[in-house]
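Justification of resources, computational component.

The compute hours requested in this renewal are based largely on the per-chain cost of generating structure records like the one below. Each record pairs the submitted sequence with a full structure-token output. That output is archived, and it is also reused by downstream analysis tasks.
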Amino acid sequence: MQPLTERFNQQVYKIAVSLIRQFDERVSGIDGMLKLTLGEPDFNTPEHVKEAGRQAITENFSHYSGMAGLTDVREAAAYYLKERYGLSYHPQKEILVTVGATEAISAALLSMLEAGDKVLLPAPIYPGYEPVITLAGAEAVYMDTTNNGFVLSPEVLETTLQEQGDKVKAVILNYPSNPTGVTYNREEVQALAEVLKKYPVFVISDEVYSELSYDQTHVSIAEFIPEQTILINGLSKSHAMTGWRIGFIFAPESLTAQIIKVHQYLVTAASTISQKAAVEALTAGLLDAAVMKEEYRKRRDFVYDEMSQLGFEVAKPAGAFYLFAKIPAGYLQDSMAFCVDLAEKNKLAVIPGVAFGIEGEGYVRVSYAAEMASLKEAMTRLAAYMANTK
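The structure output for this chain reads:
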């Protein structure tokens, strides 16, 4: 009899647990380890949002919502997007509530991709997209941004679209970016939109870090090409609600009508209790991210200055809570080897850049979603490692 392990979808064998999680688990068992690894806000969910969740439990919001989400949370999401970014979406026809931005990404990609399709991604980039692309039998095509300050230029985008041809089904954008913290200003977003509107491609714009844009107001590409854009956002980063698992898809009705089919069969619907808390976050908590953002800004400046003085080449993050740093010459250039050595010798864990694609080799990602005392200790340990290793 053929072993059952040989009867899985063959695409499953082409994917693996992300290197981020693999490395984090590898070092977590080391006593005294200081971890700056995962993209997890160290803040707690705002008290008024937690109270809304408690009230939802008391009032027995423990049943299924409609598959698109509760009416009031979609209305609140429409209000939030209009107030913060000037975007207009019909609450009942153009908004889906998802189980975090991760499920939103999966539902969007699986609804559009077929075997042989291609998806373009700027690199280095968060590793959560390619596995879903692979499962659909499609191919991820990476556009290297390392020579342009991690910013995708319209010239590179246009050239890649022309080279890859009709098989390109979608382009994924993620800004502010994980892992680099780089984001795009209005002119840069508009320039990309001018290229994309010439091609029959979906634009999946993952803007889950939009509220953590430090130096300028976040500009969504949906402002310029709404008819092509599947806008993804959520409350994990803006309201420190990672465990509540609330994300959103905003898209034209014609696209939403197809994506909701995949969403339904993946999860049925998001948690009703979490959705009731989300209403509070999106309305009364419209500006909840502001306090967190200012604290992240202070941390960014500290870590950026410290690592720059140690010889790391860093593109100063303009958003999110990550710093992507090039390992100085004279040290291990294999990012996994460097991070393992640092963890074992000085009990400091940061993520190898290769976890974000081959374009990230030679870099490390530092998450500064940690209190300042931990960051100061982390930089002390890093300085000691650099002094004693070269």
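The radius of gyration is 21 Å. The first strand starts at residue 34 and ends at 35.
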